[in-house]
Amino acid sequence: MDSMRFTLDSVDLEGKHMPPKTSNEKVDFFKSSQRKASVSKVAWTCMDCDQSFTKDGDMLLLCQYCEKPKCITCLGLSKAFYKQVSGRANFPWFCDICVGKAIGSVKTSKSIEDQCHDFLSKFQEKVETRLVDIEKDVKEVKQELAGLKQVKDGTDGKGEAVASENIAKQATTEIQSRFDRRNNIAFYGIKEKNKSNLKEECEKLGNDCINDIITEIGIHVHSEEIKNLKRFGKKGLTRVIENKDGNKEEVEVPRVIIGTFTEEAKIRIMKNAHKLSSSKSDHFRTIGIKHDMTKDKRDKDLKKEAKDRTEKETEKFVHVVRGMPWERRIVKVRKGGGVVAQTHPG
């Protein structure tokens, strides 16, 4: 509504007066003002005193919420004040019954606006983060291409063509593989309790293990957010480790579980994955959660992490990457021999 009040002589449109209303009938300002019936006067009934006003110059305020009028006598307003606020769109008036509803509506609208702003801000941040990751991947691929180009230097024309084609295929495969894995999570160190080859039974145990881990880190993931869970790697592999007593023992290496989740579920899991390291349960502290990466990307990240750890170590120890291709891990060793500790595969 463009105005918070009216006088009887201000509601005439195109030289036509609104049709008369009885004192008991609700006045609809918008609908009545649009009718073109040639009737002289319209009656307005005060919502408090029920007095009917039909004269030009009668002074009433119209509630902007329920559209019911109220005279200035019932409002306790002077004519001078009425004339000051008359026609001001930035000075709306609401009756006592509607003022709470009006304020509530304004707050609700503001809340919705704030929520939309927060959502768009988070979405923009997510897009910018994704772009940074993509730029980083492209940079790494370019570096790999440059290295491969140096290797092939010195070959004949035919060899160069073949080498260039192979480089392009390798780069394309690497980029596609990273894209396909974007919503994957790798779970390391989850023991294989079931020795049978029954697919359904193995899958059920895998699902239960993942749900237990998700509960342990304090979040909830709906079943429809888990797209797929599957173990990868060779069964029955073992490795020799040094236990707490300093003795060497052979332990089984559980195959990695690769889980595919929705984007939002993966974000929640990865944000809380660090909680496993401080779990009260020995079982959960031995489990690792990592992004599912390609072999090249995983090796690069492991070597960088090992280098960073070594720089923070004392002069007696270094961190190195060891293990078979499907079970690479960082181990802490003394300079001159002997594994001190090792992490789960990365």
From TrEMBL:
Coiled-coil residue spans: 124-151
InterPro entries: Znf_FYVE_PHD, Znf_RING/FYVE/PHD
Location of the region described as Disordered in the Swiss-Prot/TrEMBL record: 290-314
SUPFAM superfamilies documented for this protein: FYVE/PHD zinc finger
Keywords, in A-Z order: Coiled coil
Protein name as catalogued: Uncharacterized protein
Organism: Dreissena polymorpha
Origin organism lineage: Eukaryota, Metazoa, Spiralia, Lophotrochozoa, Mollusca
